[in-house]
Design goal:
Blueprint lengths: L4 H4 L12 H9 L6 H17 L15 H55 L26 H9 L28 E11 L12 E12 L6 E15 L3 E4 L8 E4 L5 E21 L9 E23 L5 E10 L7 E11 L2 E8 L13 E11 L1
Antiparallel strand pairs: 1-2, 1-11, 2-3, 3-6, 4-5, 6-7, 7-8, 7-9, 9-10, 10-11
Helix pairs in contact: 2-4, 3-4
């Protein structure tokens, strides 16, 4: 292991460390002893200090008069930054290719499903009535007025009686005008989040929340325009705060670790955040589609999404007594423990532009074997219009 404990623990450098630059050079020269994550955290914590002693920057080649260890440290840090940048760029390209391929398949499936539902919405299931003309029921011509009264009476009785259509009092919803109604093309949702299946060892606190923004298209049924199909796309983001717990999303193990740090140093604020790109679909019903702004609305559906980002963020490091040790922010980002695809059931009920919504994730939040089987759910308020 590295002989410099302040380097291995990725801690911040100080003035006394300057005497150990030869050891730093040798430690960095054998990069295999430290992980890339440790080196990167070491650089992030000390980049201003390294610039001060000209260890990084444009003039990073060997400088006459400097010790060999100091020159090795400068060269190794520069080489590490170049390697990390190229490696990160390659990983980013691979992830973009994977996401692009998945989104193409998802868009194809969604387009086929939307086309099928749209065709159902446009089918008129009522059979057109074939009018029976009066000519087909033309009675025998009336006899001349010189005919006997009996003959005339018989002629009159032969006239067809066409009954008038009885008025049922029901409105024909297939013929209402929807030109001036709002179709809920834009929806914003603010929800309160919980985790179903979360073990008691995972300590959460505060207001876990989510924000969803969707752009929707609305396809009314021709047979009954109170019913419609909503299809669209949008973004969903959620944030869950933890109580004296660190979620190691960038950990090296095979399972996501929720580490309780109540008896040691901990962050005053620590949260886990995720972002998804989603495609929602709804079967909608409005009691008065001509006046949608004051109508009761009901919707059942689902949504499929792909994870864009998962990261943790910790602020203000405290000791176990609650005193501030370091007022800084730590961020870690990784998606490898999470299911990249999310399937969720949705429901809405409300009046006008306001409604209550509920979402329940059907598949597990974490990958199989990466942790407990957690199913997030959310309830909240929807603002819709346009």
């Amino acid at each position: 292991m590295c002989s410099l404990p302040w380097l291995h623990s990725c801690s911040r450098l100080d003035e006394q460390t300057h005497a150990d630059w030869p050891q730093l050079g040798r430690a960095l020269h054998g990069r295999s002893r430290l992980t890339k994550r440790q080196l990167f955290k070491f650089y992030r914590a000390n980049h201003l200090y390294l610039q001060r002693f000209q260890l990084i920057g444009e003039n990073y080649k060997e400088v006459p008069g400097k010790s060999q260890g100091l020159n090795e440290a400068r060269i190794e840090i520069r080489a590490f930054l170049s390697f990390t940048f190229n490696d990160s760029l390659t990983r980013l390209k691979i992830h973009l290719l994977i996401i692009t391929s998945f989104m193409k398949k998802l868009l194809l499936v969604t387009s086929l499903l939307g086309s099928y539902l749209f065709s159902l919405a446009q089918i008129d299931t009522t059979k057109p009535l074939t009018p029976t003309t009066y000519d087909t029921l033309t009675p025998l011509r009336a006899q001349p007025q010189t005919a006997s009264p009996v003959t005339t009476m018989q002629s009159d009785t032969l006239k067809p009686i066409i009954p008038k259509k009885a008025s049922t009092g029901k409105k024909d919803w297939s013929k209402v005008s929807l030109a001036n109604r709002s179709n809920d093309h834009f929806m914003v949702q603010l929800g309160y989040d919980k985790w179903a299946g979360k073990p008691d060892s995972i300590k959460t606190k505060g207001f876990a929340h989510s924000i969803n923004v969707y752009f929707m298209l609305d396809f009314p049924f021709k047979t009954d325009q109170r019913f419609s199909v909503g299809l669209g796309a949008g973004v969903s983001g959620s944030s869950t705060p933890f109580d004296k717990t660190i979620v190691q999303v960038a950990g090296a193990g095979s399972k996501l670790v929720f580490k309780n740090v109540a008896d040691t140093n901990y962050f005053k604020k620590f949260k886990l955040s995720t972002v998804y790109a989603e495609i929602p679909i709804e079967l909608r019903f409005a009691t008065d589609p001509e006046n949608n702004g004051k109508s009761w609305k009901f919707a059942l559906g689902g949504k499929v999404g792909t994870m864009i980002n998962a990261h943790t963020k910790g602020k203000n490091l405290l000791n176990k007594s609650g005193n501030t040790l370091n007022a800084y922010t730590m961020k870690e980002s990784s998606k490898r423990f999470f299911n990249s695809t999310r399937l969720a059931a949705t429901a809405r009920v409300g009046i006008g532009v306001f409604s209550l919504f509920g979402v329940y994730q059907i598949n597990s939040y974490l990958k199989e074997g990466a942790g407990p089987e957690i199913h997030p759910y959310s309830i909240g308020l929807t603002l819709s219009g346009l």
